[in-house]
Amino acid sequence: MSQTRRLRTEGKRKVGSKPDADVQSRNRLRLSPGAEKILVLLLVAATLAGLYFDFSLALMYPLTSDMANAGLFPMEVMQGNFEYVLPANNPYIFTDYIIHMVIQPLTGYSHVALALTGYGIFVMIVLSGAALVWRLAGRVEAAAAAAMIANMPFMGLIYVLYPLYHNGTILFILLSLLVYYSDRPPLRLSFRSRVLIIGVLQFLGVFSDTLMLPLFTAPLMAYAAYRILKQRMAKETEKGDGEKEDSPVLLLASAVPALIIYVVKSRIGQLWPGGPILAASGADLGSPGNLFQHTEMLYYYFAGLINNAGGIFIAIILLFLVVATILDRRDRFLHAVLVLGGLFMIIGFMSMDIAGDPARYLTPISIMALIVAATWTMRRDVGYLPLVAVTIIVLAGAWPNGSVIFEDTDPDFIRNQQAFVTLLESENITHAYADYWTANVYTYLSGGKIMIEPVNVEDDKLRFQMMNSAPRWANIWPDGTDTRPVVIALADSDLDAWAKKVNENHPPEEIHEFEGGWIYVYNGTLPAWPAGE
């Protein structure tokens, strides 16, 4: 290779190498030290204001059964029962549950602590995003990233404040990116060390949540393959090159354990005798058997991205910043994670057999877009336009979030949910049956004093729902021993329709109406599948 070519390709050799500092300095807006300090302070103030709004929203959101699992599973474990059925697609063991296992028992399984734990993970996401941008660009850009993430509009914010809504996965992705770019001060790691850490994070992350596979592991593999191809074309991998240690082959190899665990985790079943059980879920993202069979999900994909951005206007501004940043051709791995992750998620969406609430799968892409956009905040190529765009994005998120907090127009969801627990206690109801979305919430809020078993209707009979529950709950199943069963049915639900049909021949002894449904108290057993079936 000629000396000229070596000089031309020197800056491209190391995977993740940082552009020359002088080049970066020449491409930045030139502000006086005082003006830059004021700008940083304003962005930090916007971040703190956003985090205050986020804190208030975290305490305002209603508790859901998905959230309640973050308290119920630790509650079961502390009682010596590790058997809990978790979806193999996203058991969340290392990304989320490992945190709740510590905090929930220490706080007496407090729903406030549960909400604050979700909020705490979000704060770590904000800090990790800012730290990543600081490494790649500078302190102004880092402050911009923090301000934009902290002021995400509440339509998308809900998905990173709720516990067990992939927020731990987002944190794992950002930590992996931070490790990848740890090839520079203040924390410089060798390439092999970075690859090892990234491999461990991928393994634990994909095991805990399959969402990390299309959003990080698959883009990493594609980027590593691209680097291998480029090196071979440039003949940079020949013996004695001196850069062999940084070969992207190692980066590609770091994804192998994650791929293996993805393939086998749905077949593992029980992790150990008496331990958690991983069960196949009907909501698997990108099921191989359904590839490209649900093109109608493209609507949900783009609608979800716009929803998370806070509307079409802000989505267009963010798209402009992202495209401009990518065309600048810096930080290519970060760009690959965003672009390829978005493309792989399109494939995943068209392979989903249910719609559910798909916007939650897209929050990581929204946050990555904000991070990529932040790295262009101080670029001088188009004057102050990027800085103005960042300001608009921050204000567009802060305004509706602040309005929700200060107008206080939403009801106190948690207080209403606690009032329902009080109603059950006043009626001496300690055991009941309800659909999943009702059952786990009130079992958790009662501290386990009221056991509400999750059920669904199948062939006109009640069947215990195993997913996200402890199998031991079925030991008190109405198979002939429960002579005074209680059914909690929400209006217009499948369980409500079933109960009204049963009531024609088996009228309940008591009916208690509550806002949104009825409580039926029966004398005698109900049509049900035997326990364990």
TrEMBL record:
Q: Where is the composition biased (Basic and acidic residues)?
A: 7-23
- Regions that span the bilayer: 38-61, 112-136, 157-181, 201-226, 247-264, 298-326, 333-352, 358-376, 383-400
Keyword entries, A-Z? Membrane, Transmembrane, Transmembrane helix
Region spans: Disordered: 1-23
Query: What protein does this entry describe?
Result: Glycosyltransferase RgtA/B/C/D-like domain-containing protein
The source organism is Methanocella arvoryzae (strain DSM 22066 / NBRC 105507 / MRE50)
